[in-house]
Amino acid sequence: xxxxxxxxxxxxxxxxxxxxxxxxxxxxxxxxxxxxxxxxxxxxxxxxxxxxxxxxxxxxxxxxxxxxxxxxxxxxxxxxxxxxxxxxxxxxxxxxxxxxxxxxxxxxxxxxxxxxxxxxxxxxxxxxxxxxxxxxxxxxxxxxxxxxxxxxxxxxxxxxxxxxxxxxxxxxxxxxxxxxxxxxxxxxxxxxxxxxxxxxxxxxxxxxxxxxxxxxxxxxxxxxxxxxxxxxxxxxxxxxxxxxxxxxxxxxxxxxxxxxxxxxxxxxxxxxxxxxxxxxxxxxxxxxxxxxxxxxxxxxxxxxxxxxxxxxxxxxxxxxxxxxxxxxxxxxxxxxxxxxxxxxxxxxxxxxxxxxxxxxxxxxxxxxxxxxxxxxxxxxxxxxxxxxxxxxxxxxxxxxxxxxxxxxxxxxxxxxxxxxxxxxxxxxxxxxxxxxxxxxxxxxxxxxxxxxxxxxxxxxxxxxxxxxxxxxxxxxxxxxxxxxxxxxxxxxxxxxxxxxxxxxxxxxxxxxxxxxxxxxxxxxxxxxxxxxxxxxxxxxxxxxxxxxxxxxxxxxxxxxxxxxxxxxxxxxxxxxxxxxxxxxxxxxxxxxxxxxx
Length: 597
Hints:
There is one protein chain. The protein is of the alpha+beta class. The chain has 21 helices and 14 strands. It has helices at residues 20-30, 41-50, 78-87, 100-103, 128-140, 253-260, 268-284, 290-303, 310-321, 340-355, 365-382, 391-398, 403-415, 436-440, 448-451, 469-478, 480-491, 497-504, 508-521, 540-550, 555-585, and strands spanning 35-38, 108-112, 120-125, 146-149, 154-160, 176-179, 184-187, 199-200, 218-219, 387-388, 419-424, 430-434, 524-527, 532-535. Strands 3, 4, 5, 6, 8 and 9 form a 6-stranded mixed beta sheet that branches. The two termini are 32 Å apart.
C-alpha cells in the first residue's frame, strides 16, 4: 500500500489537528471498511492493573464490539450537509462527543472482518518467517493484497467475491491463521503494547501498491483455496457462478446458469422468463432488493444476441411481482433438514394471517397485521426457530413511517400472545418466535371466512407487503387497506365495496374510502359495462407519475437513508459512551462487568 496515503510514523498530530490514526480511520472508512477505535496500550495497561483477573497487558481491547458485527460507524458527508440545508439543523453525528474523528482521538485503529467490510479477510502471521512465506506464496501466484507489519510478523488483507470466509486457526502455511467473520484486527498506524508501531509494507510494486480511494483487492475463493480455506457455513456456491452476487445462492442452479449465459434470438424470451419469475420470488421473500435484482436481470438481457430490450425485462418483472405467493424454483427453506421446523412454522404463520380475526385488535388491527407480516419476512431471512426483529428493520419491511408505531405494535403482538420474546442478540436487537397459539392453531377465526358469502377455496386472498420502492411510496400515502384492496382487484375484479370488504376481511367504510382514492389517481377503474372494479397493471413510469402527483416520489428511499443514518449514529453514540466509561473505570473500581470485555 502507498505509504503516502496513510503515514505509519508516530507523530501525534498532523495538519488540521488530526492524528495519524484519525486520518487513517477516515481514509479507510471511505474505502468501504468497517473501522472502529480500539484501546491504546496505556489504557489497557491501567485496566489490567485494576482488573488483573479479566485483562492482561497484551489484549487488543475494543470499547464495544457486538454492534460492529452488523453495522458501521457514521462519518458525516455531503448528504449530511444537504439534509442540514433542507431540515435546518445539523446532523446528529456531527456533535463533538460522538463525531467520527473524535471517537479515534488517542485510540488504536481496528477493522471488522467479514461482510460489513466487503467480506474482508485477514491472513494473520504470528512470526516473521510465516509472514515472509505468505508474501512469497501470494507473490508467485500474482495475487494482490494489502500487507502490513505487526509486532511479531505481519498481516495480509483482501476481500472475497463469494461471501465471508470461515475462520481457521490452521492453514497450509505454518503459523498462519485465517480470519474472515466475527473477528477484528488492528491496523496501522496503531501502537502495540510492546511499543512497535504497525506500518504498511514500504514497497511500490503493483502487488502491494493500491491507488488512493480504492478498497482492498478482490479475490475469488478459487484463487485462495491453496490456503485450505472455505466459505463460512451456508455460503457455498458453485464455482461456475462466482460472478453472481451472494443472494443468488437462493436461486436454482438452472436460473444461475441463465443469469451467467448468453442467449440467442429464439430462446431469449423463454429463458429470461424463467429467470425473472425465480428472481421475483426472491424479491417477494425479501432475499434481495428490487433495484439490485432488476440490475442483474438487465445485465443478463444486455448479453443476449441481439440484446433483449431492457423495457421488456422491467415489464416482465413487474408482471411477475403482481402474482402473489411466488415460490423459488429451488426450495430455499428446505435445503437443510435442520431447519424444517422453521419452515413449517413460517407456513403456519402465513396461514394464520389469513384466518385470524384481526378485528379484536381494534383500531390498530391493520398496523398489527402488517407488522406481523414483516416478522414473517424476518423469519424467512433468519431461517431459524426465532428471528431478529429490530424496530428499524420491521419499520422498513412493514412500510411504516415511525419507529414508535412499530415498537407499540410488537408490544401488542406479544400481549395478544402472537409473538414471544426469546433474547437480545449480539447486535443488541430483540429476537422473537411465533407463539404456541399459532403453531397449535388455537386462535380466534374471522367468521367472515366461513359466513361471508365468499368462496375462499377459489379466491386468493392476498396479505403481502409492498416490495418495490414505488409501491411503498404510493401506499404509504394511501394506507394499508388500499394496498390490500389493490392487490385483490389486480387478480379478481369485484362488483361492490361490500364484496371486496368480505373477501379481504376489511371494514367496508375503509374499503369504500380506499376505492375512492385509487379511482381518482388511476390505480383502479370501474367498468360500467361489466359493473366491476378493476385493478390496473401499470408501468413503472405511470406509477412514478402517480407518486409525483401525490408528492411521495422517493419517500421510501429517504426513509431507508434515514434508518441507516440513525443506526450508524447510534453506534457512534455507543462507542462514545463506552469510551467515557473506560475513562471512569481507570479512576475507580465500580461493581459490574467492564464494557467490551
